[in-house]
Write a structure and sequence with these properties.
269 residues; alpha/beta; Rossmann fold; 8-stranded mixed β-sheet; 10 helices; 8 strands; 15% strand; binds S-adenosylmethionine
Length: 269
């Protein structure tokens, strides 16, 4: 297969990547045949997969718009993905023109493509780093140069923690990010939840994602609440993402079908 210009030499283009599968669900063009095949297998097992990705992305946009409207001017987006329409800086800067956004992802395609899109945009930065080493993110010189950690910021960890196994202690990793934040900061988090799914459906999802470098770990609502440890959940709490402050025209019927639960927490003073 020919390697397109946007694909760094370091990536294995014969092996599906969760970032490029997600790009495919969202109708993006930064994916290969292997990603599309894995995404289609996922859709065969869970037909709602593209709907899930879109609903998750819509939740993220509503949360960013809401926080920007409340004066949040700095955003740290961890596991930001391959840039697509309506990225965090675009949404935030509609409300707060001088909003600053740092993007972080482990995936080389996501990082390379974000660098290309953001070239020359001095209110944004992108680095390649892993949530499993939180100090490498919050102490990264490029991020410290852009974001002021003495002031509140919103940290986004959206559709990422289901790729982190329990052994790596996702709640503990988030707490280590939290330790670097000023009071009044926010956590925006969503992840796949198996609340109400049959065991068979959960198993099928696992098998598809086993071909990638990541397993997908859906979790119950109860298992996700500790991720917001130290934060106070804003209304309506941790809910199926379409139910989080929906726009008046949103269709919120069958919200649980989208499989993602999400919420926004505020770090107290
Ligand atoms: C499903 S996409 C979500 C993208 C974006 N946050 C959104 O919700 O639209 C998940 C992203 O998380 C990234 N990711 C997975 N594990 C990660 C980790 N340990 N640290 C940082 N990023 C990670 C993947 O590369 C991928 O780009």
């Amino acid at each position: 297969m020919q390697r397109p210009e946007w694909a760094p030499e370091s990536i294995d283009i014969e092996r599906p990547s969760v970032a490029r599968m997600y790009d495919y669900y969202l109708g993006g063009s930064h994916n290969f045949a292997v990603d599309r095949a894995a995404a289609q297998a996922m859709i065969a097992a869970v037909p709602e997969a593209p709907l899930m990705a879109q609903a998750n992305r819509a939740f993220m946009r509503r949360a960013v718009r809401y926080l920007a409207s409340r004066g949040v001017r700095q955003f740290l987006d961890i596991g930001s993905g391959i840039p697509t329409v309506g990225n965090v800086h675009e949404i935030a800067q509609q409300e707060v023109p001088d909003a600053r956004v740092a993007y972080v992802d482990t995936d080389p395609v996501a990082v390379a493509h974000a660098r290309e899109i953001l070239a020359g945009n001095e209110q944004t930065v992108v680095i390649q780093a892993d949530l499993r080493t939180p100090e490498a993110i919050v102490n990264a010189p490029e991020i410290r140069a852009l974001l002021d950690f003495t002031q509140p910021m919103a940290v986004l960890i959206v559709a990422v923690t289901h790729f982190i196994p329990d052994e790596d202690d996702p709640a503990g990793l988030i707490a280590r990010v939290r330790g670097a934040l000023a009071p009044g900061s926010y956590l925006v988090l969503s992840q796949a939840s198996d609340e109400g799914r049959t065991e068979e459906e959960a198993f099928e999802t696992l098998v598809v994602y086993r071909q990638t470098d990541n397993l997908l770990r859906a979790r119950s609502r109860k298992a996700l609440l500790p991720y917001f440890g130290g934060f106070t959940l804003l209304e309506p709490g941790l809910v199926w993402v379409p139910l989080w402050r929906p726009d008046p025209t949103d269709n919120i019927e069958d919200a649980d079908r989208v499989v993602f639960m999400g919420g926004v927490g505020r770090l107290g003073d």
